[in-house]
Amino acid sequence: MTPAQRELLLDIRREYPTASVPLILRTLVADGRLGADVVSATTVARLYREAGLERGVRPDGHTRLRWQADHAGALWHGDICHGPTLRIGATTRPLRIHALLDDASRFVVALEAHHTEREVEMLNLLLAALRRHGAPGGLYLDNGSTYSGVALRLCCERLGISLVHARPYDAPARGKMERFWRTLRAGCLDHLGGMTSLHDVQVRLGAFLDEHYHHAPHGGLLGKTPAEAWASASCRVVDEPALATALTVHRRRRVRKDGTVDLDGLLWQLDQGFLAGRVVTVVAAHAGLAGDPVALHDGHRYTMRPADPMAASRTPRRRSGEMPLPTIPFDPAGALLDKTAGRPPRHRKEKP
After folding, report:
1. How far apart are CA 314 and CA 310, in angstroms?
2. Pair (116, 172) in one structural domain
3. Which of 83, 116, 226, 313 has its CA 20 to 30 Å from the CA of residue 122?
4. What pLDDT score was predicted for residue 327?
5. CA 346/CA 268 separation, integer angstroms
């Protein structure tokens, strides 16, 4: 290699510490910056070792340390695993497994199967875990849209839960979750076979946790089981009023012409026709914790109800162009005619 080629290889490894030697060589050859037989992969690997640039080593000297929360309940990891596609009838639907894992004990505090990975599924998962176990000291999540919503951030702030997001594109920082997903795939997800519903998947996930995972010795716990390590967990109890307050969010929404508003995938109806087309502030608690949502506009509160399109189809309506009969006499041309004919106005005539 020429000094320029040697420096190019070193610069690429410094900029892209996770790129493999074969990938670097293949890319440089394809770009025409390096001949196909100029250097072997073994030589390049030795070059990187001598320069202290092994794969995955950060050039800023950062050392990755093995870490763990000081007690069970101090920190929960949250993540999503993509499972096999489910065939439901004549269609196929994706499978997304949502989980919350305690850091110190590796105990799974919540595990649910869904078709999507929206914030609403994360809030449902967190709500179930808070009701069952109490509030942890912190949540450690990735940077996906599922974990970046306003509702989740406000919930954590109001409950005193530290919300921490991992560094983007740093998979090793999420090692505990990745290890659990590998265990779950080997023991459950890879053997779902012909599952045709989320219910079938969910009961198998529960059986895997209760009958195997939580009671199997864990290498990261020096042979203890997750259930044994979780037995000493310390989480703050959260009552229902506190949950309702924590999960109440103000959202700006424009009312459709039919008086409906979409909220977390559900359709709500406003009966005040003058609000159609206007922007209102909707105050709603997740999962109906504080009752039905209300709309705020110009200092007034308007109740909302679940929209029922089928019931609306049976509601009587006036035909297009049909006007109600007037109750107050008003006939400009008739008044002029009465004046011309010299007779009293029609509205003064006594009814027969």
Report:
1. 7
2. yes
3. 226
4. 75
5. 49
